[in-house]
Design brief:
The chain has 10 helices and 11 strands. The protein has 280 residues and is an alpha/beta fold. Strand 2, helix 2 and strand 3 form a beta-alpha-beta unit.
Length: 280
């Protein structure tokens, strides 16, 4: 019987720790403020933004909300980012992705001050991660490291396979695992003999974006499986990249979808907000 890694419970532990630190900072006259910008009314983005606001409310972090119409000009968004960069009372800036097609996401991300880039997407922060310097780290990979550590799963010396090579999850995930002294392989849609590669993993992290792609035959007996995917199955039910029913009997530990990696992403965003003021 595999251990179910409960992301809701672990994220609550993290948020309670943040809450105490935020209260202590308020006692010193310091307040943490996160500015969240949403462009358009993408339903998934609206849900994410609402959850982020709730996380701020729970931990005592002040949140500012900015909503631009879906047809707003890119220059309007960039001007808002620049204004927030200059504001001394704003510690973190988050632009909810995806942006409308007429906006250049890379340009917008690069416009956010690296010192306020709590999503960890700015090229300077990505570069810092690559060379081992301090900086903000992308929230989902950071949350996965916490899930493993707080579940008593050792990373050092283990063979880890990251399935997916996105800038938001796959690449930073591999770098964080290297930082924890794991031996890391990045696999993706063009990897030959994919099942053979994934079956070597002591820790398999699936971030490929295909519903239930990873079945039991991709997984080594006793491996730890982390499912980053958020998809809909043929019945429109929320599911991950991992076929839970066939993988759970094979592995030693697994994250569910929902309730696994997702809650940790928001917890790590709040963690990064706290880091922003501790670095001042």
């Amino acid at each position: 019987m595999a251990m179910i890694i409960d992301g809701k419970e672990i994220s609550l532990q993290v948020k309670d720790e943040i809450k105490k630190k935020v209260e202590a900072l308020k006692g010193q006259g310091k307040e943490i403020t996160l500015a969240v910008i949403q462009v358009g009314d993408n339903p998934a983005s609206t849900v994410y933004v609402r959850n982020k606001k709730r996380g701020c409310e729970y931990t005592g972090i002040r949140s500012l909300s900015y909503e631009l119409s879906g047809d707003a000009a890119e220059e309007e968004l960039l001007a808002l980012v620049e204004e927030l960069n200059e504001r001394e009372d704003v510690n973190g800036i988050l632009v909810q992705l995806p942006l409308p097609p007429h906006m250049d996401e890379d340009r917008v991300i690069s416009a956010i001050s690296p010192l306020k880039d709590v999503d960890g997407f700015h090229p300077q922060n990505v570069g810092n991660l690559c060379i081992g310097r301090p900086g903000f780290v992308s929230c989902t990979p950071l949350g996965i490291i916490q899930l493993l550590k707080r579940s008593g799963i050792s990373i050092e010396g283990k063979k880890c396979v990251v399935l997916g090579r996105s800038n938001i999850v796959g690449k930073p995930m591999a770098l964080l695992l290297l930082r924890e002294n794991a031996t890391v392989t990045i696999a993706h849609s063009r990897t030959e003999n994919l099942k053979e590669v994934t079956r070597e993993a002591d820790i398999l992290i699936a971030a490929v974006g295909r519903a239930k792609m990873i079945t039991g035959e991709y997984v080594k007996e006793g491996a730890v499986v982390i499912d980053v995917g958020i998809n809909r199955d043929e019945n429109n039910k929320l599911c991950g990249d991992v076929d839970f029913d066939t993988v759970e009997p094979v592995c030693s530990a697994i994250t569910p979808v929902p309730g696994g990696v997702g809650p940790m992403t928001i917890a790590m965003l709040l963690h990064n907000c706290l880091e922003s003021i501790e670095r001042e």
